[in-house]
Structure formats: structure tokens, C-alpha cells
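Re: [help] complex structure
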Amino acid sequence: MNLTSEISLRRFTTMDLEKVMEINKTCLPENYNTYFFLEIFKNCPEGFFVAEANSIIIGYIMCRLESGFSDFSRIKPVRKGHVVSIAINPNYRRTGIARALMLSAMSSLTSYGSSEAFCEVRVTNEPALALYKKLGFSIRKRISRYYYDGEDAFLMARPLLS
Ligand code: ACO
Ligand code: ZN
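Output below.
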């Protein structure tokens, strides 16, 4: 990475869609169509962020607001923030950008009234598992054959403080 890069975070706008889809395709096997990204944006506009280096998009996070059973208590239905996808351009990894995006997204999820955040992650995705653990997420369950190629997911979650 270029050490003189100016990194900044800002809210996603629909003008960013093409670049975000490109990063998603480069970084993850889970890819989505335009409609999917725009639906996520409509559902949770303030939980969709991009990271820029010198005004070029190098990462994103997008979330969906959901409700359902708590991942911490068996009986309580709660509002939950689902971290649907996060990815950082490989040239800019390990400099705290994903962490910053996660913190911004979790703060928005809290303002929307979510009391928990959760995501699914491939059981072999060491960087992502380490990122979420560092941010206070814990593994709540293993979902067998969650991904199209047969790999299992860990469902990871953490409470959000309001
Ligand atoms: N190995 C071990 N720990 C790691 C790694 C790694 N490669 N990457 C991040 N971490 C952990 C570390 O604890 C790190 O803190 P440290 O650098 O002080 O030790 C902490 O996470 C924060 O790291 P960041 O620099 O903020 O993470 P980065 O910006 O590099 O992005 C990400 C991490 C998003 C997982 C990146 O590697 C990536 O884009 N991977 C491909 C896409 C992907 O797997 N996305 C997640 C899929 S699951 C989902 O989207 C819900
Ligand atoms: Zn998910």
C-alpha cells in the first residue's frame, strides 16, 4: 500500500455501486446483482459505508436490519443488525480499515435500535474470524453447508450497547 494514502470513510451512495460490486467480485465468492445491493441500501442506508484511499474506493461494508430470536437468549425476540458483506482491496489490508468500517456500521445499527449484530463467516476464513473476534463477536453456532460450495459457516454475534 502507498503509505501516503489518505484513508477516509463515508456513507455509500448509488454512484458507488459499480466500484463496490467490483471489490465484492475480486474479494469474495459470494457475489450479488445490482438489485440485491440496492435493496440492502434501502433497508439500512446508514449501515452501508465505503472506505476511500485518495478518493478511490478500496472497501465497503453493508448491513441489513432484521428481527428474530436473540443469538444470546433463547426466548427473546430482538432487532438485529446483519453484517451482510465486508471486503477490503488486498493492497490495503491489515491497516485497520475493516475494523473502522465495522465500528461505523455497528454504531449505525445501534442507532437503528438493534441490540445485537451478527454475520456468517466461512469456517476457514481466518482473517475475518480474527477480525470479528477482536471486535467482540463470538461463535454462536455452526451452520452446515451454508455456502454454495458446501463449506460450513460460523454464525458470529455480539450484543450492541445502546
Ligand atoms: N490474519 C489474522 N488476523 C487478521 C487478518 C489476517 N489476515 N486480517 C485481519 N485480522 C484481524 C487482526 O486482529 C486485525 O488487527 P491487527 O492488524 O491489529 O492484528 C483486525 O482483524 C483488524 O484488521 P483490519 O486491518 O481492520 O482488517 P482488513 O482491513 O485487512 O480487512 C477483511 C479484513 C475484511 C477480512 C479482509 O481480509 C478481506 O477483505 N477479506 C476478503 C473478504 C472477506 O473475507 N470478507 C469477510 C467475509 S464474511 C462477511 O462478509 C460477513
Ligand atoms: Zn449473512
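Residues 7-159 form a domain with the Aminopeptidase fold (CATH 3.40.630.30).
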